[in-house]
Design brief:
Helix content: 25-40%
Number of domains: 2
Strand order of the largest sheet: 4-5-6-9-8-7
Largest sheet: 6 strands, antiparallel
Shape: globular
Number of helices: 8
Length: about 280
């Protein structure tokens, strides 16, 4: 026979210390899934080492900052800082797989919103990369958010939330793949009466993602799809925006079509597998 002095002894024998803390659970899950520590930057983003299966090289990312074709010395240095195992025999490291920006033709920043449903993807085109012609050269942003029916926020406020209130949690990306696959296959062409123009405040937020070159500007819209198309019982709000020539008349349909073209490429780039 043995004696249990307290229930706390039982739980400590099964669960890691501080397992009831969200940040600790998240750090442990990232360490398990990505085989590295994934530390946060001062801006709240995460640092990750990836392996590009296309050019067979390691690369480092911290949101929109990347370092490509890392030398052996630099890879060992970053791997030590991230607690990632870097093989010394020239074999392929056990990093998560993702095509590098040079092979994709863009820096792709993928984030999620706190809560069960919501994501933001920023496709920042690289002008000197060998981007396929059908992908275009303009940088584009897509965001989707499930909102509570009880919310008293205006549509403009929700739009600003789509551009600012984020958390970078790679462990939730598999759930996002289902959202994006649904957006690609189920969403019809938006109707004019379902769409609303972006405000000056939204455009100022977009300029923090990328400042347009002279002759270009951010253009986009907020979209409330019909209730019959809901992915969940709660209403959905989508935001689509892109940098386009200032003199080009804006239309919601070319921007929507561009995202329908990009979504399968993003899903394939990230290695998501959907049944």
């Amino acid at each position: 026979m043995f004696r249990i002095t307290s229930l706390q002894d039982v739980f400590n024998g099964v669960l890691p210390q501080h397992a009831d803390d969200f940040r600790t659970r998240q750090r442990l899950q990232l360490l398990r899934d990505y085989r590295q520590r994934c530390p946060e930057t001062i801006y709240g983003d995460r640092q990750l080492l990836w392996w590009c299966p296309s050019c067979a090289s390691a690369w480092w990312q911290a949101d929109g900052i990347v370092a490509l074709h890392l030398s052996d010395e630099r890879l060992v240095q970053i791997g030590h800082r991230l607690h990632a195992q870097v093989p010394r025999d020239g074999s392929i490291p056990a990093f998560p797989r993702r095509q590098c920006p040079e092979c994709v033709g863009a820096i792709v920043s993928i984030k999620v919103y706190p809560g069960p449903l919501g994501c933001q993807i920023f496709w920042q085109s690289l002008p000197h990369a060998s981007t396929p012609p059908e992908m275009g050269k303009e940088s584009t942003l897509f965001a989707l958010l499930e909102v509570s029916q009880e919310t008293d926020q205006s549509l403009d406020a929700i739009g600003k939330h789509l551009l600012t209130c984020l958390t970078d949690e790679p462990c939730e990306l598999d759930a996002m793949a289902i959202q994006l696959d649904w957006a690609h296959h189920m969403l019809p062409l938006p109707r004019q009466d379902e769409c609303h123009p972006l405000t000056a405040e939204h455009l100022r937020c977009l300029a923090h993602f990328e400042l347009p070159a002279p002759g270009g500007e951010w253009k986009g819209f907020l979209w409330q799809p019909p209730q019959r198309l809901r992915l969940s019982p709660f209403p959905l709000i989508l935001l689509l925006a892109a940098i386009q020539p200032t003199q080009m008349p804006f239309s919601i349909f070319p921007l929507y079509t561009r995202w329908q073209d990009l979504l399968p490429r993003i899903i394939a780039m990230t290695g998501w597998t959907l049944e």
